[in-house]
């Protein structure tokens, strides 16, 4: 298959041009004809101009690439490999929302040509590719599964905002329905992934491997969050405790924090959903989710207590929020827990000002009806350092003091400003 793609006999299509799909498409497009397909027309128009509004790819990343961006299904012609990178969110009831995945499978099924491979990369529960996606492909094509086309699964490990662990220097897990398809998929990814591939035993194993990467991280952070609530009652600093404990060779260094975004706070629900369909109700995984989901309330409670102790009239206070994205150095606000903190504070009529040089302001306003300030003001009663954007790392003790009212508090969620002096300091 790789030869056919390299010779131009066949094209590779990436379905879903988001955080995951665009970098993969651009990487393959260095020497393979790629069709970058997305249902979002505005996004496609921007990509045609070489603009990634998520700021993960720069203008130069688009130069000299053999790529056609399109929202027209009719452009999905002569495709040898489809890579599916559509979102897999959860519903309000925290169960998997497979609608994008199912729609993408239908689109592909209708366009399938002989000898093609469909590789799913979206994060799903074990079994989803074969039990939920494959039947849709089969329903929408005259072609025979295994005789005319194959399926594969390769979880995505890209970490937006991370310049160290990149798409090409991180080992990629691959799996497929037959040994010969696995060989083709391995060869394909080895072509772009310098770190190489890991061939998983089967598709379900590969799906499970991705889900547990994020579930493990969610639980480890949940433990630290719970510990930080306990240590707060004990009046000791969690960071100090972690530093001391981590001198033991087998202590794992995780830190407390808000768990937002579309992966760590979402993926565990895919696993718990699947477990429940099999008659098992997970306890630890859901307990971790609950702790992490309640952390924003804990933070707000801490601020309100400070205001009460300092005899400040809560409705007359002003708070600066430094960072509103779901993690550092990205513009992404999906499921950002900082938003929950903000909404909770606003419920108390507190004046909240958000400063975030990276956030997509249109998305923030459209999705959450919130706006940002262009420059930081003064007279804050609390500063919440919520996200560890690089730009915030240079803020000094003195600077915070000049922008704060007397008896203010610095809430340092990510422990950026450890050792801070001059006003009340609190970190998780
Ligand atoms: N972003 C990450 O850091 C990351 C990392 C690893 C895995 N993942 C997983 O990868 C998948 C994609 O995540 P993402 O962050 O890139 O999502 P995203 O929202 O950034 O991008 C998905 C894109 O798919 C498009 N889309 C939706 N339905 C479509 C359809 N039927 N046909 C064509 N396009 C369609 C959307 O318009 C959107 O542009 C998810 O399963 C996610 O869990 C994400």
Written account of the structure:
This protein has helices spanning 2-7, 21-28, 41-48, 99-111, 128-139, 179-190, 203-234, 238-245, 267-277, 284-293, 295-309, 337-346, 361-368, 397-402, and strands at 11-15, 34-37, 67-70, 79-84, 116-120, 149-153, 172-176, 197-199, 318-322, 351-355, 380-385, 404-412, 424-427. The chain has two domains: 2-200, NAD(P)-binding Rossmann-like Domain (Rossmann fold), CATH 3.40.50; 221-427, Rossmann fold (3-Layer(aba) Sandwich). The chain is built from 14 helices and 13 strands. α14 (397-402) links the parallel β11 (380-385) and β12. The chain has an eight-stranded mixed beta sheet, with helices on both faces. With 428 residues, it is an alpha/beta fold. 37% of the residues lie in helices and 15% in strands. The radius of gyration is 24 Å and the shape is elongated. The model has no long low-confidence stretch (mean pLDDT 95). The protein starts with a helix and ends with a strand. It binds nicotinamide-adenine-dinucleotide. Nicotinamide-adenine-dinucleotide binds at residues 15-21, 37-40, 43, 85-88, 100, 103-104, 107, 122-123, 156, 158, 160, 262-263.
């Amino acid at each position: 298959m790789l030869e056919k793609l390299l010779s131009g006999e066949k094209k590779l299509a990436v379905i879903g041009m988001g955080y995951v799909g665009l970098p993969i498409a651009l990487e393959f497009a260095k020497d393979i004809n790629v069709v970058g397909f997305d249902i979002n027309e505005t996004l496609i128009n921007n990509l045609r101009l070489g603009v990634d509004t998520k700021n993960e790819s720069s203008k130069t990343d688009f130069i000299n690439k053999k790529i056609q961006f399109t929202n027209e299904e009719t452009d999905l012609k002569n495709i040898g490999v489809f890579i599916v990178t559509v979102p897999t969110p959860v519903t309000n009831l925290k169960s998997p929302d497979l609608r994008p995945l199912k729609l993408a499978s239908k689109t592909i099924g209708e366009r399938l040509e002989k000898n093609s491979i469909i590789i799913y990369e979206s994060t799903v529960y074990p079994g989803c590719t074969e039990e939920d996606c494959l039947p849709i492909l089969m329903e929408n094509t005259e072609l025979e599964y295994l005789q005319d086309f194959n399926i594969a699964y390769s979880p995505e490990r890209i970490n937006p905002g991370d310049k160290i662990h990149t798409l090409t220097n991180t080992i990629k897990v691959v799996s497929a329905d037959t040994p010969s398809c696995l060989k083709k998929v391995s060869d394909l990814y080895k072509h772009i992934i310098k770190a190489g591939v890991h061939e998983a035993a089967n598709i379900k194993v590969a799906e499970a491997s991705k889900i547990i990467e994020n579930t493990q991280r969610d639980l480890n952070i949940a433990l630290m969050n719970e510990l930080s609530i306990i240590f707060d009652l004990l009046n000791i600093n969690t960071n100090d405790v972690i530093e001391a404990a981590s001198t033991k060779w087998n202590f794992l260094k995780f830190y407390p924090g808000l768990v937002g975004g579309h992966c760590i706070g979402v993926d565990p629900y895919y696993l718990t959903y699947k477990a429940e369909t099999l008659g098992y109700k997970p306890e630890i995984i859901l307990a971790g989710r609950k702790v992490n989901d309640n952390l924003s309330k804990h933070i707000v409670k801490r601020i309100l207590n400070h205001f009460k102790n300092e005899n400040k009239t809560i409705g007359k206070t002003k708070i600066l929020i430094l960072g509103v994205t779901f993690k550092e150095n990205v513009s992404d606000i999906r499921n950002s827990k900082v938003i929950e903190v903000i909404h909770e504070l606003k419920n108390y009529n507190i004046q909240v000002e958000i400063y975030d040089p990276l956030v997509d302001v249109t998305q923030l306003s459209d999705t959450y009806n919130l706006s940002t300030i262009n420059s930081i003001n003064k007279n804050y009663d609390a500063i919440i350092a919520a996200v560890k954007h690089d730009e915030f790392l240079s803020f000094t003790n003195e600077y915070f003091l000049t922008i704060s009212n007397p008896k203010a508090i610095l809430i340092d969620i990510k422990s950026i400003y450890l050792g801070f002096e001059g006003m009340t300091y609190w970190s998780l």
